[in-house]
Structures are given as structure tokens and as C-alpha cells.
């Protein structure tokens, strides 16, 4: 039986083709499957009776994710790549194999048309892969008959059987002119690229003639051959013969949240998918641009040979900064992949919102599960804190309140930090906001919360505990909320030894922690957006007289923030090839903008 969390996710599955990835309690992918209809297929695992291996797999599923595709055939091809990449324990087919076959036209003297399972760097032409192996074989036999190349071992001094059957050009006994091979190869390539109308029309005529002559078996054979041709040459986006390593990024924005998808195409295959969701600070285009530049500056993050982005982003500037071609595809497979990334981004964000709408059904007993796991008496009220700043500028904190597992938004509070010297100092930020919050409650005689949660792990947790115990003489339990390397809720830290409290990720208590962490992060980010200087770094630079696109890109690439440019000397700025007068103007203008806002709110 599915957990309540899985029940909610099952209700949100799309009626679309695609692949699904089953995960265990540790987030490890244990099974990959494909489906014509993701909703029906994935639900069947939890709504039907299973035995043996399938029952064992389902019992270990704690979560799942999906990747939608445009067609069922694409789900076949994507499944191959995902199985070979992740090697899930419960998959037995394709895990160590080479996948589906290709049709290959060999290079060199007397080329051949054959089926292969490997793509080599041998100058040959490859078409595929083809998920319907039998259809590929039948199409190969058809092409041998219609566009013969070489079928025999060659240079036998006499015509081979295939030559007599019309399936060999005669390399077995004569020198076949290269022009004759080239003409046949051109026709084969055109056919395998989808130009099949003339041949299909001829086959349909033959099928009708055979039927009219009561040769029904022959008519059925031709009918099946037409079907095999359609299946074999149908175009797909998941795998192509273009071997350029490229990344494809698209995004979807709704209700202040940005959802993005990155498709990594390597060795002509969609090898990996990364998805992210976060609340926006600036407009979506600025957020996406900042994310992309930071993403590719991470350690061990290799740049692709080409980056494909939506037209709304500044592709020219991103290309200059990253040093790789960046473009927006207008047609063809890459354009289709851009659309597929957009569809997946939208579905991921819609799922998040719809899960939030179902929260009211998931809070029963959640608070008690948390307090029981911590060894605390039952409570009703949780206050959670998070900080937000961008490269140290405009530091703020925010607090959300949950009562009996439900958000009490009228009790939320915002704080502009005023005493923090190093704006990225998590300890100082935490001490200030905790001191201000609970000093005020003490003065006003207000009721204290049953539990305080800090989004930031042991640093914030210990800083909060220090203020409460040593300055305010308060005994309020403080818990640290920890995220994993995928920025998702992992577990809690608690106690003098900061030990981990591993909640069951399928439990109501875990889901409540996840929701609190998401909510306080969202609230802090949105508040920071409102207090942050109106324009982004790029916009601020554009407002300075004498700063054009080239100068702006130099500054963004070298420094990355207003504070860092303001701290640079005029000579440092000049060293980038900027004249003295403009460098002075940049320095003066940005020094003013880098001043820390001292206002405060909701003390």
C-alpha cells in the first residue's frame, strides 16, 4: 500500500508518455520504466497485487520522479539511456547491454548496409537507434532488395547468389564505380531520414494489386512491411546522430516560483536531467541568467560545446561570459527538446503547487511525530527562521509560524539585519534575529513557541541556542533543519551533541518539516526581493554613463557583485581595459549603491 505522500503524487501524474524512476528511502534509483501513459502505469504498481520481484521493488519505493516525452517511442529510447546510466538494482534488461540497434552504412571500398549495436568513430553513417528490433531487421531486408550495396564477402571472381537475387551490386566479381555506390547511399540516407512517401506509395499499389488478385498472404506481407518502415524511420528527439555535447535549458514561472530543467545531451543521447525550483528574487530572466552563470562556474561542472537557451535570455552576453556558443533553436530536434524541457518544468512546478494544496490533509499527528522523535512533550506551535542575502548584500531574516501543523501567516515576521558586519555571517545573523524576536516576546509577556527550527543546520541551531540560554535564560528546544546535496529536506539536528534525527521520509512528520523549510525559505527570499535594490547588477551598470555591453560583461565576469566592484580600486577597474574617466564614474556610482540599508522592520 502506498504512503500518504505517494498517494498524493500518484494523483498528480500526467496522462502522457515518458519514463519513471523509482527511488528508495535513501533517494537511490532502484528501478526505471517507461509508459505510454505515466498515470496508469505508475499507479498500477501501488493499486494492483504483485508477487516476487515486483512486490519487493514496490515495498522499497519511497518516492519517484517522471520525465515526460513527446511519444511512446521516445520513452523507449530514454529508458535505455537511464538504465545504462543508473544501473538500477531491479532492472534486469539492458543494464549491461549496448541498447537498441542502429542501421549502419560502412565506409571505405564496397560499403555495406548492416545492423550494429555500437557506434564507432569509423567514418560510417549510423541511423537509429530503433526500439523495435524486428522492424529494423525487416526494413534492412527491404533496403537490401531496393537499394543494394554489397552482401557477399567480395572479390570472389564470380557473381554471388545475392547478385543474382538483385541484392548486391557485384563487388564480388567486378570493380563497382564509386559513383554507383554513392547514388545508392544517397537514396538509403534519404529513406532513413524519413523521405519514404514514394516507396510507400509504390508498396501500397502492390498491396492493392495483390489483394485484387486474391493473394492475401502477399498483401499482408506488404502491409506489414509498410508498418515496419513507418516504425523504423519515425523521427525521435531523445537520440540523434549529432554528437555535439550540448546542454538544453528551459524554465517555467508561476506564482513567484521558477522551475527549470537542464537536459545534458552527450554521445548523441539525453544522458542526464537536472531540475531545480526556487522562488524568484528579480524577474525570471535575471534569475535564470544568474543561475546559468553560477551553475557553470561550479567546481567539476564541465562546459558543453554548445548551450541552447530560450529566446528571452541574453544569449549573446552569456556566450561571451562562458566562452561557448549559445543559441536558441528555431526548428528541428533541438527545438523539440527545448519544448520537452519546458513541459517537464511546468509539470514539476504544478505538482509542487498541487501537493501544497493537499497539505491540510497531511498535518494530522505530524506535530506529535516530530516531538516524539525529539523526545519532547507534545506541542502546538513551531517558529522557524531563515536568512537571505545575495553575495552579502541586503541581509534579511524571516520567521514563519506553524500552529498544529498549519501555517499561521498573520504571525509571520520579517527582519532587516542591522548589526551584522559580515553579511554572510550565519552566526551573527542568527543571534541578531533570535535576540530581537524573543526579547520582544519577553517584554510583552507573550507565549513562547514549543519548538524553534533553524534552516541552516548546526551553525544556526547553536547560535540560536546560545542566545536563548546564555542571554535570555529561556529553555526552548532548537532544531536544525538539514538539506542534502540536492537542496531537499534530509533530516533534523538536535541536542547538545547535534545528533541526527532521521524521520521516516514517508511520514507526516517528515512532510511537515519539509513544508516548514520550504515555506520559511520562500518567505525569506520574497522579503529579500522587496528590500533589494530595484535593479540587478546588469541593470545598475547599464545606468552608468559610458558603460556599454562589452564593459558590463567584463565587470560581471571579473567581479560578479556590486560590493566587489565597489571595493576594487580605480586602477583595478582600468586594468580591464576601461578608460580612467569611466572607471572613476563606476567606482563612485557603485560605492553609493553598495551601502548597507540600516532600516529595520517588525522588531
Automatic annotation (TrEMBL):
Subcellular location: Cytoplasm
Any single Gene Ontology cellular-component annotation: cytoplasm
GIY-YIG domain mapped to chain residues: 15-92
Record flagged with keyword Lipid biosynthesis: no
GO biological process entries: nucleotide-excision repair; SOS response
SUPFAM superfamilies listed in its UniProt record: C-terminal UvrC-binding domain of UvrB (SSF46600), GIY-YIG endonuclease (SSF82771), RuvA domain 2-like (SSF47781)
Gene Ontology molecular function, alphabetical: DNA binding; excinuclease ABC activity
SMART domains, A to Z: GIYc
Pfam families assigned to the protein according to its UniProt record, in alphabetical order: GIY-YIG, HHH_5, UVR, UvrC_RNaseH, UvrC_RNaseH_dom
Keywords: Cytoplasm, DNA damage, DNA excision, DNA repair, Excision nuclease, SOS response
Residue ranges of every copy of the UVR domain listed in the record: 197-232
Quaternary structure annotation from Swiss-Prot or TrEMBL: Interacts with UvrB in an incision complex.
HAMAP family per record: UvrC (MF_00203)
The protein's role, per its UniProt record: The UvrABC repair system catalyzes the recognition and processing of DNA lesions. UvrC both incises the 5' and 3' sides of the lesion. The N-terminal half is responsible for the 3' incision and the C-terminal half is responsible for the 5' incision.
Record-given protein name: UvrABC system protein C
Native source species: Limosilactobacillus gastricus DSM 16045
